[in-house]
Structure formats: structure tokens, C-alpha cells
């Protein structure tokens, strides 16, 4: 009999203790292998492009670039990677955001260890997995949501908005995104026009409400 193919996994969370906890659960499984870790959304894009994992366990709330935006960008580069969102929030906004970004699974951080293993084994078979603690009715309604969802801001604008709401200046944002601060200002102006909000506190409130920025990271 041929050996079962190993599932290659990248762990993404801004808290090392969380990554260590997940690692200790996964390392007990002979058919799973952790090939890398990242502590924010941007590092996750770099690592997964380089390492080509089968599965990414991705924290949703992270400073700089959150898990939803990171998932979108990773899947644009390699749509075959299966991403499992991991969060403390059972808020529909986050679950919806993660699945609309293309994730295949969603787990709560207070779920049990066996659920993480089940989720990984499920998504590699091209099947979606939603934490047992969350109402399962949500999955069938996803395609309906996908149809009515209309993205207001572009990916770049969404990235800039998260960074503005985290208190970063145009110069700092430009440095992070490899843009001139003038270009950042153009994005900033376009965002304000599109969502009709004109101060940083208003933008921050909007970003939190839309699940781009998380109070725990501020
Ligand atoms: Mg986090």
C-alpha cells in the first residue's frame, strides 16, 4: 500500500502562543506537516507563494493586513490552496468575509483540537467546513450572498483603509505597500469619496464595522 500523501500546512497568526498551540495539535498527526509560519497577512502571502502549502490555517484578525484580505491575495496567486479561517469571533461578517474571500473552512479559537484536524482533512477533499459551534444553515446560504455581494472598494483601497484605521500616515502606508505617499493620498481620497466618510475616526469606525480592522489589534 502506498503511504498517504502528507498534507503540507502553513500557520498564520499574529500571536506566537496561538501558533505554538496549533502546531502541537497538528504535529501529533503523521499525515500532516507544518512547512511554515507567518505572523501577519503580508508575510502569509510571501510564505505561501514560496512554499505552496496544501492548507493555510489563517487567523482573521491581524494588524497590517487581515486574514480576509490576505486570503484573497493568496488565492489570486494560487487558487488551489485551501484556507481555513481561525477566529475568536462567530460574527457573521467575519465568516462571510472569509468565505467570500475563497476560504474553505472557518473555525473558532475556542473549538477543540479534534475539530481542527477534522477541518483540515475535510477541506483537502474539496469540501467546506464550518465550526460545529456556528449555525450550519450559513453554508447553503453562501452562494446567495455571493450573488448579491458587490465590492465597493478595490483590494488596494481595502488595504489602504485598514492601515489608515490603524493610525498609519500616508508615508508609512506607502512604505508598506511600495507606493509613493502621493499615490496613497489618491487612494485615500477615492476611499473617502466612495464611502462618503471624511475623517480618520469615521473611517476607523467603518473599517471595524466592515471587519477590516479589529479592536483587539488597535
Ligand atoms: Mg489575531
Task: Count structural domains.
Answer: 2
CATH superfamily of the largest domain: Response regulator
- Kindly report the average pLDDT value: 88
Shape annotation: globular
Uncertain stretches: none
What small molecules does the structure contain?
magnesium ion
What class do helices, strands and sheet pairing give? alpha/beta
CATH T-level topology of the largest domain: Rossmann fold
| Rg from alpha-carbon coordinates | 18 Å
Distance between the termini: 52 Å
* CATH top-level class of the largest domain: Alpha Beta
What does this structure look like?
It is built from ten helices and six strands, in the order βαβαβαβαβαβααααα. By secondary structure, the chain is an alpha/beta fold. The protein folds into two domains: 7-147, Response regulator (Rossmann fold, 3-Layer(aba) Sandwich), CATH 3.40.50.2300; 155-217, Orthogonal Bundle (Arc Repressor Mutant, subunit A). The radius of gyration is 18 Å and the shape is globular. The chain binds magnesium ion (MG).
List the helices and strands and how they pair.
Layout: E1 7-12, H1 16-26, E2 32-38, H2 41-51, E3 55-59, H3 67-77, E4 82-87, H4 92-100, E5 105-108, H5 113-123, E6 129-130, H6 142-148, H7 155-165, H8 170-177, H9 181-195, H10 200-209
Parallel strand pairs: 1-2, 1-3, 3-4, 4-5, 5-6
Helix pairs in contact: 2-3, 7-9, 7-10, 8-9
Magnesium ion (MG) binds at residues 13-15, 59, 61-62.
